[in-house]
């Protein structure tokens, strides 16, 4: 894994740490799975994993914030 990829993963993890408390307040959580070709793969856990609104949380919340903070991110996908 290149240093650039590791740096990007570290930056994504830092942003996820700022989002995590909001998810945990609703009984959920988020886990970074991987970053490949500037696409972030995450796993929604707890209440977020089974919530019917989780796609909105992912796209309108997590993806929007990550793309705002790290412009090179193209997409966030749940796995």
Your description of this structure?
The protein is of the alpha+beta class. 54% of the residues lie in helices and 27% in strands. The chain has a 3-stranded mixed β-sheet. Helix 1 crosses helix 3. The longest helix has 23 residues, at 3-25. The mean pLDDT is 91.
Summarize the structure.
This protein has 79 residues and is of the alpha+beta class.
- In the predicted model, the low-confidence regions spanning at least 5 consecutive residues are none
Most strands sheet: 3 strands, mixed
Alpha-carbon Rg, integer: 12 Å
Q: Report the count of strand segments.
A: 3
- Give the domain tally: 1
Question: How many distinct helices?
Answer: 3
Order of helices and strands: HEEHHE
**CATH class annotation:** Alpha Beta
CATH fold-level assignment = GMP Synthetase, Chain A, domain 3
**CATH architecture group name:** 2-Layer Sandwich
Structural class: alpha+beta
Return the average pLDDT rounded to an integer. 91
Relative helix content:
40-55%
Superfamily (CATH H level) name:
Fe-S cluster assembly (FSCA)
N-C termini distance: 21 Å
User: What is the molecular shape?
Assistant: elongated
**Beta-strand residue fraction:** 25-35%
List keywords for this structure.
3 strands; alpha+beta; elongated; GMP Synthetase, Chain A, domain 3; 3-stranded mixed beta sheet; 79 residues
């Amino acid at each position: 894994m290149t240093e650039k990829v590791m740096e990007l993963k570290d930056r994504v993890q830092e942003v996820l740490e700022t989002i995590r408390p909001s998810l945990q307040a609703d009984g959920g959580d988020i886990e970074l799975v991987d970053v490949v070709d500037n696409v972030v793969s995450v796993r929604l856990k707890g209440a977020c994993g089974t919530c019917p609104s989780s796609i909105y949380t992912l796209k309108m919340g997590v993806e929007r914030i990550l793309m705002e903070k790290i412009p090179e991110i193209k997409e966030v996908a749940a796995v």
